[in-house]
Each structure stands twice: as structure tokens, then as C-alpha cells.
Design brief:
With 283 residues, the protein is of the alpha/beta class. It is built from 8 helices and 10 strands.
Length: 283
């Protein structure tokens, strides 16, 4: 069955490649058409891999661009978060070189950074600030690389400076929104550690019995101009520890159910499903 699942994924990616080429000519990055296709793609791939998404809390309003700060466990994180709402990601430079995926990431408005060169950070921060200025929410993985979900990596705060860059772009802006979100998986097979090869890990996931990913949203934080980047990083890291613990507990007791109710689709546009979460919390 793993071969069948990977075959379905391959067919979808080939079809995606055929579609994204023309879309790049006619649609701007992050357009509703692109976002709708991205959301459908994420949900399709999660369904094929039998990954169930459970949600506690809710994202901030789509009308408000915010910096989403998440822990990083796997490439699956991008599918999970991308299935819930329109987002663009800060990604390592190598992702932009991947066939099909790199092209699609650029159409989604991804920002690429060379993690081996600190000199690339200011340009990446400026690009993130520009995404926020234009109303796009941006996902930052401050650990910089993936970890197994049981241990946290070093929490890097250099990209939190993008909020200061945004303040320079928008002098009239009173504050920016930052929201922590934690991802916790019910099966260790989800972890994609460090520089591990993608295809063997994809095969391991496709060969398994499926698993759940608990997504726990914290309350959005208001960050004023002149904030202390290091202090903000400490606050977010402390909040992340609590959210990851809640996610692990939810996976253990299985008391969160998420229902996606798609709204009627406009021709040529996306279907942004309304998300309802039922919580039976006896912790």
C-alpha cells in the first residue's frame, strides 16, 4: 500500500507541476487561486498519508497579518499548517531548488534564507516584513532545523527582527501580532531529523498506520515598536513549551476533533474551510 500512496503523491505532484507553470504567468504570489490550490494540496497529501489533524485553539483572524512562531518537527509541519489557513513560510535556501516544490513555494510567497550565511538574515527579515506589510501571515521556525518533538532546539531570535523592519515600512503601525503554535505528533515516525534524506522518510511515513498531529494555538500577542527581541524570544519559547505539552496530552487522550466545513467555492477561487473544534477537556 505504501507504493500506491507514493504513486498517488507522484501523480498529484506531476499534475501540480503542469498547473503551476501557467499559474506563474497569470497569478501573483499568494493570490486566492494559488492559496486555494495550496490548501487542497496539503489536505490531499495528508489524507493519502493518513495523517489526522487535531486542533486546539484557533488562528488569529485572517484579516490581520501576523508572525506565526512554531516548533519544527518535520516537513509534515508545512502540510499541517498549510491545510488550516493561508500562510507563507521562511524556508532554507535548498527548498527553493527542489523540483516542483520549490516552484510552488515561490508561488506561495515563501522567503528563502541561507542558514550557513548570517549575512543572508537581514534580507530575509526584510522580505518577511514586506509579506506582513502586504497582509500575508508568515511562519517562522525559530529552532532553524527539525527536532524529534521530545527535545527543543536552540531558540534563535534573529528573525524576530522582521517586526522591527515592518515598523520601518509602516511608521503608522501601532503594533504587530505574533502567535505561537505548537505541533505534536502521536507517532515518532513523523520526526524528520536534521539532514535526513526526504524519500526514505516519506516511505516510512507512507508505510505506517497513520498518526495524528495535534496543533495547539496560543493566544496572539501584541508587540509594540521598540520591543526587546531577546525578551520576546524568551516569552515565545516559554509559551511553546506549554503548548507542546498540551499537544502531547491531546494525542494521548484523543479528546479533540476537528471538522472542516468548506464554504461554497467561487469559480477560479479557493475553498477556505471554516474550522470548528470540539474540546472535551478533562485534563
Amino acid at each position: 500500500m505504501a507504493g500506491v500512496r507514493l504513486g498517488l503523491i507522484a501523480v498529484w505532484l506531476v499534475a501540480l507541476a503542469l498547473v503551476t507553470g501557467p499559474l506563474g504567468w497569470f497569478c501573483r504570489a499568494g493570490s486566492p487561486v494559488i492559496e486555494g490550490l495550496a490548501r487542497r494540496t496539503c489536505r490531499f497529501l495528508l489524507a493519502v498519508l493518513r495523517i489526522r489533524v487535531q486542533v486546539l485553539g484557533r488562528p488569529g483572524p485572517e484579516q490581520t497579518a501576523r508572525l506565526v512562531v512554531a516548533n519544527h518537527v518535520s516537513w509534515i509541519d508545512i502540510l499541517v499548517l498549510g491545510s488550516l489557513e493561508p500562510l507563507c513560510f521562511l524556508a532554507k535556501r535548498e527548498v527553493g531548488l527542489w523540483p516542483i516544490i520549490g516552484t510552488f513555494a515561490r508561488l506561495k510567497g515563501a522567503v528563502f534564507v541561507d542558514r550557513t550565511r548570517r549575512r543572508s538574515i537581514p534580507a530575509a527579515n526584510a522580505a518577511m516584513a514586506d509579506r506582513l506589510r502586504t497582509g500575508r501571515s508568515v511562519v517562522l521556525f525559530p529552532e532553524g532545523t527539525t527536532h524529534d518533538g521530545t527535545q527543543r532546539g536552540r531558540f534563535l531570535t534573529s528573525h524576530l527582527a522582521c517586526l522591527r523592519d515592518r515598523s520601518r515600512l509602516e511608521p503608522s503601525l501601532d503594533a504587530s501580532e505574533v502567535q505561537a503554535v505548537a505541533l505534536a505528533y502521536s507517532d515518532p515516525v513523523a520526526s524528520w531529523i536534521g539532514d535526513a534524506s526526504l524519500l526514505p522518510h516519506l516511505w516510512a511515513v507512507a508505510s505506517g498506520r497513520g498518526f495524528a498531529c495535534a496543533v495547539v494555538f496560543g493566544a496572539p500577542m501584541t508587540v509594540r515598536p521598540g520591543y526587546d527581541r531577546k525578551a520576546l524570544g524568551r516569552d515565545l519559547q516559554s509559551q511553546m513549551e506549554v503548548l507542546v505539552s498540551r499537544g502531547s496530552t491531546l494525542n494521548a487522550v484523543g479528546r479533540v476533533r476537528t471538522e472542516h466545513e468548506p464554504s461554497p467555492a467561487e469559480i477560479g477561487g479557493p475553498v477556505f474551510g471554516a474550522m470548528k473544534t470540539e474540546i472535551q477537556d478533562r485534563m
